[in-house]
Amino acid sequence: MKISETDLILNPDGSVYHLNLLPKNISDTIIAVGDPSRVYMVSQYFDEVEFEMNKREFITHVGKYKGKRITVISTGIGSDNVEIFFNELDALVNIDLKTREPKSRKKKLKVVRIGTSGALQEDIPVGTHLLSDYAVGLDNLMNFYDLPMDDFETGLAHDIQKKTGLPFMPYVVRGSETLRDQIENDMQIGNTVTCPGFYAPQGRELRLPIRFPKLLEDLNYYHKGDFWLTNFEMETSAYYAFGRLLGHEVLSANAIIANRIKNKFAKDPNKVVESLIKKVLDRI
Known about the structure:
The structure is a single chain. A five-stranded mixed β-barrel has the order 7-13-10-8-14. The chain has a two-stranded antiparallel sheet with strand order 5-6. It is globular. β2 and β3 (58-65) form a beta hairpin. The chain contains seven helices and 15 strands. The protein is of the alpha/beta class. The chain is 27% helix and 29% strand. The model has no long low-confidence stretch (mean pLDDT 98). It has two domains: 1-107, Nucleoside phosphorylase domain (Rossmann fold), CATH 3.40.50.1580; 114-284, Nucleoside phosphorylase domain (Rossmann fold, 3-Layer(aba) Sandwich), CATH 3.40.50. It has helices at 36-43, 79-94, 151-164, 177-183, 215-221, 236-246, 269-283, and strands spanning 29-33, 48-55, 58-65, 68-74, 95-96, 101-102, 110-119, 129-137, 171-174, 188-194, 223-224, 227-228, 231-233, 249-259, 264-265. α2 packs parallel to α6 (236-246).
């Protein structure tokens, strides 16, 4: 099946449209960050940087860390950007860009998101490094894809909608157990809520009244058996959904820089992020 020029847009040099990358410009192991400036926080530890690309919010550095070739790419904020990132990243390895046809043999990438997050439970202190086991998507992205969920995930999705009173059903998807086992060691394991915004969707109220003033409290109290919601941010559910849909190993590593229940914020958020970057680099 040949993919049309408007479905898969390429730049004049043959690179994918938004990332501006060619297949040779990425490695099989990829670190994804939201903040473009965080790319430099990761690549400063590389033995060498062999390639750089800056396009919009998508900044890419490729280099070697202790001899292993690693790519770090920024996505900007939000699950909509992750959709662009993942579709184009997968196209680089699983579509022949010259013939525009999917390859018969699919390549599996390892993708680790390193991002900041706020804790939803009182006993998760600021400064914690937390790996997301399951992600709960409050964004609407998967309404446009056919994401398979198992019985446990579907049951959680219905239950969370019922307990929070949201007018839509979230989606629930698990991350890579392989990557989690490889990286976890001294990190906390949790379940992450992905929100489609930073203010009202995360229970923040400035000048605008919010529609669900009890959402933060509902997420804090929600549990089903020993399944609790530990933190929230704005991308993890999209990472996990595309990992499942496209067949890649994906894990989200969260630097907890705020505790929303205690109303505490990290004095030095960059320090929390930097120590998480070092851990991830050493373990992948």
